[in-house]
Amino acid sequence: MNSKLSWLAKFKEKNNLELIRLLLFFFIIFTFSINLFYKISLDGTYVRGLLVDYLIPKIYLAEIFLIPFLILEFNHLKKIKMATYGCLLILFLLIRQLLSQNPLAAFTHLIHFTELFLFFIAVSRDPLFKSKMAAKFSLGAMFLVVIFQSLLAFYQFFFQKSLLAYHALGETNLQDFANISKAQFFFGEKILPYGTTPHPNILAGLVVVFSILIILKIKGSLKAQLILLANALLIIFLTQSISALLTLVLFGVYLIFQRIKVKRIFVIIIYYFFLLLLPFLLSKISINGINQDSVNRRVALNQASLEMFKDKMLFGVGINNFTLNLENYSTNGSNREVIRFVQPVHNLLFLVLSEGGLLLLIIIFLLIKEAKIDGFYRKSIILLAIASLDHYLLSQFSGISLLALFYLFI
To answer: Residue 32, by phi and psi: left (phi above 0), alpha (psi -120 to 50) or beta?
Structure first.
């Protein structure tokens, strides 16, 4: 008999409460990307007869594990301290949502954000999740997510259909051709894979970000790192996700910055380019007549978001209410035609300013300060492409979850 305790024996030695917390932690990481949810209500979720998914208040599968986890972590959460003025600002934000066009959509989204912020705080401050055991749980969960989502993506792409019905895995119905993302490959037009996420870009972002986190955790295994990198590139190719590809490039920039001392001005230039200059460049591309619907949609959404911010600079139009107000702020007839797609603006800074105004921006900075993330701005370089070209890191439960997990494990 082996004198050393097996992994299972060590696992069983832990007290029951710690085991429960670790298991909940594992299942939160594994299930957040599964787009299974319960619809609370469909009232106020239609725009000109079109059901808008972003407006549907939902309870997600991952919350079955997340809410008990937060209850068990209450002792660590009650230590959160915020200045009185910060609490007042949050109170103003909550009151503002009562006056939004769809308060239920606003409050549901705020609840999701609050849950995941508290999850981040609990995990970052509980000594249990700094243990080797917790590291094995998190690494194992991330590996499983990458493997599961990648295999499912390969199946969906090569067979051009979902593996199972929505209620089994949360897959998008790929036979619903009218609303499915497609792209032209050298061998013909193909439906893009979704995995169990709401969109191919989210699938690609998830696989790339988790691959980056795993690569940083397994520094001694070059073969595994190369396999993860090759798999991430293949998923990027299958999903045609520019933001995910740029995320890999920015990961390389981050690694260079880690090795050499870089002046702060270079970090500022990168932020300036992605958050402010890139939207301007997109508008120039659109004006110059390049016929790309994706670029035109982004430009139209950017323009609408800036109109919202100019009109309601302090408080915005309401959290998760961008799509409801979109048509009212489109600036011309051609934009109205493009905006029939009814999506949030594909830029996180513009999304924050249009939905929550300066109030929400200030609160986010206060929450970043409370989170106490070492090297926050340097680490955030990795996410700048997604932040400047997409919205899901703040508009989707899976995106907010990915954001929390990124800052926990980077």
So the answer is: alpha
Q: Count H helices, E strands: the chain? A: 21, 6
pTM of the model: 0.90
Task: Kindly list the distances between the CA atom of residue 376 and the CA atoms of 20, 141, 351, in Å, as whole numbers in the listed order.
Answer: 30, 24, 20
Q: In angstroms, how far is CA 226 from the centroid of its own chain?
A: 25
Cβ atoms < 10 Å from Cβ of 274: 22
State the sign of the Cα–Cα–Cα–Cα dihedral 306, 311, 313, 315.
negative
- For residues 399 and 214, the answer to whether their CB atoms sit within 8 Å is no
Please classify residue 34 by burial: count the beta carbons closer than 10 Å to its beta carbon, then call 0-12 exposed, 13-18 middle and 19+ buried.
Answer: buried
User: In Å, how far from its chain's centre is CA 18?
Assistant: 28
DSSP for residue 289: T
Distance CA 339, CA 48 (A): 12
What is the C-alpha to C-alpha distance for residues 146 and 132, in angstroms, rounded to an integer? 21
* Domain range list for the chain: 13-270+344-409
Q: Which structure tokens are listed for 163? A: 């593996």
The C-alpha atoms of residue 51 and residue 6 are separated, in whole angstroms, by: 53
**Mean pLDDT per 10-residue section of the chain, whose length is 410 residues:** 54 73 96 93 86 92 96 86 83 92 94 96 94 94 97 94 84 78 85 94 97 92 93 96 94 89 77 75 55 73 93 95 90 56 89 96 92 89 93 96 96
Nearest Cα to Cα of residue 342 among 314, 372, 382, 300: 300
Q: Which DSSP helix (H) or strand (E) runs through 38?
A: strand 37-39
Calculate the alpha carbon distances from 324 to 45, 57, 243, 338, 371 in Å.
8, 14, 26, 15, 31
> CA–CA separation, 117 vs 404, rounded Å?
7
The answer for residues whose C-beta is within 8 angstroms of residue 117's C-beta and 6 or more apart is 367, 371, 404
Query: Cα separation of 295 and 285, whole Å?
Result: 8
Q: Is 60 helix (H, G, I), strand (E, B) or coil?
A: strand
d(CA 251, CA 378): 11
> 158-161 long-range CB contacts below 8 Å, 24 or more apart?
160/190, 160/191
Structural tokens at position 36 = 């299974």
| Angular region, 319: left φ>0, alpha ψ -120 to 50, beta rest | beta
What does DSSP assign to residue 17? H
User: For position 335, what pLDDT does the model report?
Assistant: 55
